[in-house]
Amino acid sequence: MSLLPRFPCGIVVLLVMRMSRVVACMTAILSQMDDHHYATYIETFTGTTDLVDFLMESFLLFKDLIGKHVYPSDWMAMIMVQNRVFLRAINTYADTMNQKFLTNDDFEVQLWNNYFHLAVAFITQESLQLQHFSPTKRNKILVKYGDMRRLIGFAIRDIWYKLGSHKICFIPGMVGPILEMTLIPEEELRRATIPIFFDMISCEHTQFGNFHKFENEIILKLDHEVEGGGGDERYMQLLETILLDCAAEKSTLKPQVQHFVSLVKGLLTRLLDYRTVMSDDSRNNRMSCTVNLLNFYKDINREGMYIRY
């Protein structure tokens, strides 16, 4: 028996309407703020702890609102205005973090973790996946708002490279979210963000002499993402080309990266085949692809994934 209160449908609708009005008011206020307003407000926090709390709570609020679908899906203008305003606030707060919480003494792991998870939630939200819209609707959005996925994707990339020795704090935790971002079918975004994987590999290898945590996480999350509809042949080509190019001048890493690329390419090929045949009427085709996956996971000693299939 559910412990949640059972509201009549009318009350639920009323609550949603009130929430959308509150969010609209907040969006309107934020849209009126320029750089000076943001800077002045940030300076009102005299203590580091209060500023960190404010930023963390802001990131959690934005992430919650992005996932809540405050407005109906056909209210595209309102959704895009909200996204544009949120994106500016997120980028402004990220600049504040770069200035105040990037050095060794002041680095705040949880704060940066909240930022990355918010940024990935923003970039992967359904309302920004332009490939699902009609050409007319897609062009209207691009003309008026641009592709906000690129803007925040490039910001994520730039901030990642600024983390320096702190990157290891986000491996393997951020491998899945970064993978989800790179799977977005937008060529420039993929080319800009896939190199983060090589940087993660280099970081973990420098620290531990291997990148087992990264590899294990990629295999686990790739299976989940492809099952959910992510990934395609072009992604596989880009991943292979970019990682091998990055490793070309790293003699100590090159053989291991080549092996990793071969592993991921083999897995992705089988996962894409498996996803395709799941809608096939041929029982033999489905069984054949399932057996291919089983044998692959068995050969690479991934017992958990073997048992799952």
From TrEMBL:
Keywords: Signal
Signal peptide: 1-24
Domain Dedicator of cytokinesis TPR repeats region: 19-242
Top-level lineage group: Eukaryota
Gene3D superfamilies membership: 1.25.40.410
Any Pfam family the entry gives: TPR_DOCK
Coiled-coil portions: none
PANTHER family in the record: DEDICATOR OF CYTOKINESIS, DEDICATOR OF CYTOKINESIS PROTEIN 2
Protein name per its UniProtKB record: Dedicator of cytokinesis protein 2
Naturally occurring in which organism (per UniProt): Characodon lateralis
